[in-house]
């Protein structure tokens, strides 16, 4: 999870609007490491939970904050 958080923070910081989508996440992960860290399915799962079931949208760091919090409970319920 630490690596997920680092990639999300760096990718949103580099984004013009402070939001990223799955492609931005995967591209930044690939650029920041010699090896593939995440599969498209893993990125889809991350965005699914951070976006309350809507994985196709661009999300800001605040959207991921709940997902990255170890005490997180789904706000969608």
The share of residues in extended strands comes to 5-15%
The number of helices is 4
Report Rg.
12 Å
Distance between the termini: 23 Å
Low-confidence stretches: none
Strand order of the largest sheet: 1-2
What is the molecular shape? globular
Number of strands: 2
Instruction: Give average pLDDT, whole number.
Output: 86
Looking at how many chains there are and whether they match, the oligomeric state comes to single chain
List SSEs in N-to-C order: HEHHEH
Biggest β-sheet: count, sense, barrel?
2 strands, antiparallel
Structural class: mainly alpha
Describe the structure in your own words.
- Helices cover 55% and strands 5% of the residues.
- With 77 residues, the protein is mainly alpha-helical.
- Helix 1 packs across helix 2 (22-31) and helix 3 packs across helix 4.
- The protein is globular.
- The chain starts with a helix and ends in a 9-residue tail after the last helix.
């Amino acid at each position: 999870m630490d690596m997920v958080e680092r990639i999300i923070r760096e990718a949103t910081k580099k984004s013009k609007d402070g939001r990223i989508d799955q492609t931005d996440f995967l591209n930044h992960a690939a650029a920041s490491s010699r090896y593939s860290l995440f599969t498209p399915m893993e990125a889809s799962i991350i965005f699914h939970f951070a976006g309350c079931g809507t994985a196709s949208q661009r999300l800001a760091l605040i959207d991921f904050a709940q997902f990255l919090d170890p005490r997180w409970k789904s706000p969608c319920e």
